[in-house]
Amino acid sequence: MDWFSLLLPLGYLSILILSLATFSHLYRRRQALQAAKLEPWFPEHTPRNIYLTLLEQASAAKSGSDEKTQQVPDSLLRAALLQRSTTNIRRLMQLRAQKPALMTLQQRGQVGDDLVQQFTFAEKEMDAELRDCVSEANALCGPGGNGVQGQTWGPSLFQSAGEIVNQENVRNAVTTVEAQREQERRQWMEGRRAVREGSSKELGAEDKTTDAKDETSRPGTAKTSDGSDDAVVVEKPNAMAMERQDSVASSGEGSGVGEVTTPGAGTSGSGAGGGGKKKKKNKKKA
Q1: Are 151 and 137 within 8 A, CB to CB?
Q2: Between 246 and 236, whose confidence is greater?
Q3: Taking a C-beta distance cutoff of 8 angstroms, is the pair 51, 78 a contact?
Q4: Which of 58, 111, 189, 269 could be stapled to 72 by a disulfide with Cβ–Cβ 3.0 to 4.6 Å?
């Protein structure tokens, strides 16, 4: 048997496997460095940090390692875990809402690979966070925990957190609608005030034009140079003149002579020595 012919393929396979292992190690290390350089998708998880701090304080108080540490009540731990789960539910809803748009942008080539990796790491972190919350809830209320023996809180934890999130969303929507209603009400009042002012101005202009037309069409009046109305005076006949005309007309009808004497004619006739009166008497006798 020729050992040299066997060593050659074995050496080739070993070199190939070693090169692939080196490449895989370097690639994973590079990916880990890139993932560490990427910014987190969500900001710092403050409710999780609060819960972990309370949990450490409770464990330290139970063990008695630090006498100054106060014991943390179980209700406070449950409230902190519920707040942590509520935050996780909100972030999970955001991820589900943002994923379709991100995939569409990736298919079009409008988003880089760094952003996709950042989103993928956020999804993995969220899955780990949800599992951790369930395990913590079971540890608090399960066997060996502070709850009732044989009961677990994990299955109903996210149901309670979801109800809290829905109530907060409804409250925020109501607040937004009320603020929008007040804004729209102010805008409507301003618009109505502007419409009223415009209509009042239009009505005032119409009244002025109507008054001008009535003044021009009114009979017996005329406009002077200063714009004031000047009434036309119609003189009525004098009552004494009317009586004199009636007496003259009646005397003329009785004598058959239609002579009419004017008011100024008597004075001129009397200067002649009353000749006019004698003539009238003679005419009456005849």
Answers
A1: no
A2: 246
A3: no
A4: 58
Burial of 133 from C-beta contacts in 10 A (0-12 / 13-18 / 19+): buried
Q: What is the Cα–Cα distance from 96 to 90, expressed in whole angstroms?
A: 10
- Return the SS3 of 224: coil
Higher-confidence position of 211 and 256: 211
272 by Cβ neighbours in 10 Å (0-12 / 13-18 / 19+) ranks as exposed
> How far is Cα 68 from Cα 178, in angstroms, rounded to an integer?
49
Do 141 and 66 meet the contact criterion of CB atoms below 8 Å apart?
A: no
Q: Is it the case that residue 266 has pLDDT exceeding 80?
A: no
Residues, the chain: 286
- DSSP notation for 181-220: HHHHHHHHHHHHHHHHHHHHHHHHHHHHHHHHHHHHH-TT
Task: Give 138-150 as a DSSP string.
Answer: HHHHSTTSSS-TT
CB-CB contact of 152 with 138 (8 Å): yes
Q: Is there a contact between 218 and 230 (Cβ–Cβ < 8 Å)?
A: no
Task: Please write the tens of the pLDDT for every residue from 137-187.
Answer: 888 875 444 444 445 787 788 888 989 999 999 999 999 998 888 888 888
Q: Is the pLDDT of residue 124 over 60?
A: yes
Q: Phi and psi of 223, rounded to 5°?
A: -90, 130
Give the C-alpha separation, 152 to 134, whole Å: 9
Q: Model's pTM, two decimal places?
A: 0.54
Please tell me the distance from the alpha carbon of residue 63 to that of residue 83, in angstroms, as a whole number. Answer: 26
Q: Does the pLDDT of residue 114 top 70, yes or no?
A: yes
Give the span between the Cα atoms of 51 and 140, in whole angstroms: 12
- Let me know: does 221 contact 230? Beta carbons within 8 Å: yes
Q: What is the tens place of the pLDDT at every residue in 225-244? A: 444 444 444 444 555 556 66
